[in-house]
Amino acid sequence: MATTSSGELEAKKSICPFCGVGCGLTYSEDSGQGTGWEGSVNTRGELCPKGVAGFEMLDADDRITQPMVRENGHLVTASWEEAFDRIEENFSEIVEEYGPKALGFFASSNCTNEENYLLQKIARKIGTNTIDNCARLCHASTVAAMGQQLNVGAMTNTTDDLGEADLFLVCGANPAEQHPVIFNSYLGAALRDGTDMIAVDPRENQTASQADLHVGVTPGYDIPVLNAMAKVIVDEELHDEEFVAERTDGFEAFKEHLADVDVAENAELAGVAEETIRDAAHRVAEADKVASFTGMGMSQHRYGTDNVHALINLVLLTGNIGKPGTGVNPLRGQNNVQGAADVGASPSSLPGYQSVEDPEVRAEFEEAWGFEPPAEPGLTEVEASHAAGDEIQGLYVFAENPAITEPNSGRIHEELQDAFLVVHDMFMTETAEYADVLLPGSAWAEKDGTYTNTDRRLQRVRQMRSPPGDAWLDLEIIQEFGRRMTDLDVEYDDAESVFDELTSVSPIYAGISYDGIGESYQRWPFPEGAESGTDILHEGEFFGGQKEAPFALVGHIPPGDDVEEDELVMTTGRVLQHFNSGAMSRRTETLMRMRGEDTLEMHPEDAAERDIEDGDWVVVENERGSVEVEVAVTPAITEGTVFMTFHYADPLVNSLTGDYLDPVAKIPEFKHSAVSVAKTE
Ligand code: SF4
Questions:
Q1: pTM of the predicted model, to two decimals?
Q2: Is the minimum distance from the CB of 332 to ligand 1 under 6 angstroms?
Q3: Residue to mutate, 21, 110, 184, 185, ligand 1, most ligand atoms under 8 Å from C-beta
């Protein structure tokens, strides 16, 4: 195994490591910062501040450059040999004593398709399907709902065609801050040209403030709003009769289901004026083309799957799918969260969303891989951490930070100590502090591979320097783990060889190649023999040849936490300057200068009731935890609701969030937590 050392950055055309937009990014020797190249998404080379500052993290003070092992309660440096000996010994003992299903793997939505593909293959060779990625915490419910109704859980349209919409219906998403290049270069341009926008969100955030209609829903009450809109459309016969007759299934049952919906009652339940709901329904029904967007405000609930079903129902009712400027468009979070699931880092599906429970699929993988993958779906990420020390005895966490990102973090901090924990990362993250073995990996600019962005395009990332000190390439680490734990042939020459194997087992990637991508992109689904990938899904027929999409009968389910009279509802989200758990953005000086601390956004009425003024410090607490934070009083948030981001270790917002899980997608309810707020002494 090569020992590497970092050197000067060699500018090459790569892709931003932060969000799922997937902007082309390279290094500018002149500025010493990131600079955009005319990538396939940022066609004018535009970047947001995160992309510009994307190289600063590479030499962060706590970059891990040597393996570490835990001795007498402390992490001490070790050789690679010692670190892998420790893993091999402990994981093998666990497999011998408890069986392979006692091991769990958290793959990385921040790392390449090739690395995630190989890690899931090794996990399955060891004998477990307990491999998951952080989509479980952000859009698992979106993927589940879209899979059930549309046969595939990915953005139906492309950033290039969305501008053809007459109306954007944005539900629980804030692309102006969270997907800034898509918003500014595609949606913003359309808005300036006359496209209207409805934003359904508890906050008048940067997206909602530009909307023609803001539906300021109470967190957790999206289904009453969306069902009431559907009710108005059906009652007034504004639906697309031809589309409903030809391409949907179960309309009569849906109509009957809506018969019980009372628009006025639903409006009151959701904290929205009835007229606002009626107005929104008419706008959706009367627009020629409606592109809908769904974000974590919809998905991160204990009924997140049903939330997205309610939106898809509206889309089907109005025939807004399968053509430019329409569709259901989840804007994905991490740079490769789409790819991690595409390549099989999932407890229930193999590469290409092929079910582990299908014997024919398993037989095909046996032929390709030389072993049959396990048949029983594994545990999801939150289930696996809940089971630590019990059903799960060993965990391999690859470049994820569950100590910050999982809900009810008091619980996860204990659970991480209950299993033998291997952390493979480049920083001493809050999760790495609990590691029994720490493997120093590589940063985005130190590796080759591919990422799959939010609108299904695969783009290449290119190595611009070597990892520092004794850190290894992530792919090398995973290969060595495979050698130690299995008899698989993991002697790939490079990332491209791994990619070629991936395309041979994943029909949706079958026609894609490194040469084909070049300095542009290729989009899935791209079957073998096709000339190009498919841009707009569900044209003529639904994905996979499905003729009709069913309506889903969903009704309101109350959120998990009861809210007492003196309590407020806390919801969480992102801001422009930071990303995910902050593992990268909090190690970026420029971004910390722009926004170094979190605040609690609070409505003036709620603040006045508690004698709180802008800039005061408050204690936010509930039965799960307590944090102290500075208050930002603003009318931009719905009365009764407060907002914090999830980017900071202190205040750690997830010490307050609950771990109620959606029964289908097992996504936690991050977006609704009852809290009390009081001024600090
Ligand atoms: Fe990077 Fe996303 Fe910003 Fe583009 S929009 S520069 S991909 S963080």
A1: 0.94
A2: no
A3: 21
